[in-house]
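INFO batch 0412 | record 1 of 1 | parsing
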Amino acid sequence: MTETNPQLQDHGAPEVDYDRREPRSGLIALISGVTLLVLVGMILGIYWLYVIAYERVDAAQYSGVPSKELEAIHAREADHLYKYSFIDKEKGVIRIPVDRAIDLIAAEYASGSVFYNTKSYPAKPEGPGGAAAPPAPPAGAAPGAPSAASTK
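INFO prediction complete | emitting tokens
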């Protein structure tokens, strides 16, 4: 007597079955070939766009001949950086060359007559919680005692 396993019996619809046809290798090869050609075409097109076409634009725009406007800008910048001139004659404000200004600042610093703080000092350690942390209690206050800021 043969036994049948009820779990292996097909309880689905009798018309449901797997596809018994062979795969169409010609169609698969054709779709794969077309996909590969499109991919290669896109790669070559992007290469042409970014390398060859942009080189033409760069060569046309930057031909090595500087424009008159750019030369005028450079001349004006050189005048401002390396020549003496009046900024305001009525107030007596004069522009000095940058090299001379550096020398004056270095001499002022060497003589110690600068009006701003130049002494180095250690940085204050930041407490836990960052800048948003409540202020620390005074040094003489007890650790559990309320601070003056919290009693208001």
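INFO post-check: The CA atoms of residues 13 and 19 lie 15 Å apart.
INFO record closed
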